[in-house]
């Protein structure tokens, strides 16, 4: 890997690592976007583009490629969960009701017409049935079962059932998202990580707490073209509100029928758990500089 040496980045190792991560994602996701029939010449073209495109352009392309894969996933989920007559009704509504803009959705503007729409009925499928249907459509699904990592604290692991290529978005990191202004609401604040190993931080400072997410049967709610987990918790806790700031897990190599391993990139300035094995100490140091 080649990191561009610029005086500004030398003074800000964290930004340097962020740009290196975006560059790597640009390569992975662009390659995946080409599909299985991509040839060597196309792969070389992507590498050349990655060396010439600005950081901003690469970041935009990464977001677009991730969004494209998520849209495909949502389309399959609609086909699996919605009865055919509901999908037909949705298409009829789409042709008669003005479509709400992404901006109005983001800023929370209300639309009386949309507020009166009833939530669509879904097929009464079990989690196993949804999982199998998703595998039939995507070529893979995910299962939670005891980890194969040889450590007493390994706990549950996330397993891929099927096959994916490099650059595939295989999962979301679920949880409640806290922006820096709301850190004090993280359970256990200020020692938030004392009894919670499920916290993960984005580059923009948003913290995702996966501890309350739980496991087992999943209830899904639909917001536009997206499906979110719902149910459980207090009605005032905000747990039913869709959180769009999240992390996605991207395959860095072809995967088939195996346990997924996440590079948590924990800070090397603090004591790390016994089970943790760093992937790249230098990257960890830059990330938390």
Automatic annotation (TrEMBL):
InterPro entries: SET_dom_sf, SETD9. Residues 106-126 are annotated as: Disordered. It comes from the Eukaryota. This is SET domain-containing protein. It comes from Cajanus cajan (Pigeon pea).
């Amino acid at each position: 890997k080649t990191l561009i040496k610029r005086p500004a980045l030398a003074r800000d190792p964290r930004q340097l690592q962020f740009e290196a991560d975006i560059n790597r994602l640009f390569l992975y996701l662009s390659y995946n976007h080409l599909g299985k029939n991509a040839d060597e010449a196309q792969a070389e073209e992507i590498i050349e583009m990655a060396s010439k495109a600005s950081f901003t352009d690469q970041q935009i392309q990464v977001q677009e490629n991730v969004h494209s894969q998520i849209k495909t996933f949502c389309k399959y989920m609609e086909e699996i969960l919605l009865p055919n007559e509901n999908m037909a009704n949705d298409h009829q509504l789409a042709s008669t009701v003005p479509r709400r803009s992404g901006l109005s959705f983001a800023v929370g503007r209300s639309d009386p017409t949309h507020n009166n729409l009833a939530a669509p009925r879904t097929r009464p499928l079990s989690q196993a049935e949804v999982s199998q249907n998703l595998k039939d459509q995507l070529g893979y699904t995910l299962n939670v079962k005891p980890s194969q990592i040889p450590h007493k604290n390994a706990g549950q692991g996330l397993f891929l059932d099927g096959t994916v290529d490099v650059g595939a978005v295989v999962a979301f990191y679920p949880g409640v998202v806290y922006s820096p202004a709301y850190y004090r609401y993280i359970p256990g604040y200020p020692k938030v990580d004392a009894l919670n190993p499920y916290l993960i931080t984005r580059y923009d400072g948003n913290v995702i707490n996966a501890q309350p997410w739980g496991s087992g049967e999943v209830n899904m709610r639909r917001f536009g073209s997206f499906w979110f987990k719902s149910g459980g918790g207090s009605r005032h806790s905000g747990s039913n509100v869709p959180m769009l700031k999240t992390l996605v897990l991207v395959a860095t190599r072809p995967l088939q029928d195996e346990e997924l391993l996440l590079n948590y990139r924990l800070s090397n300035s603090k004591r790390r758990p016994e089970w943790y094995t760093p992937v790249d100490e230098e990257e960890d140091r830059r990330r938390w500089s």
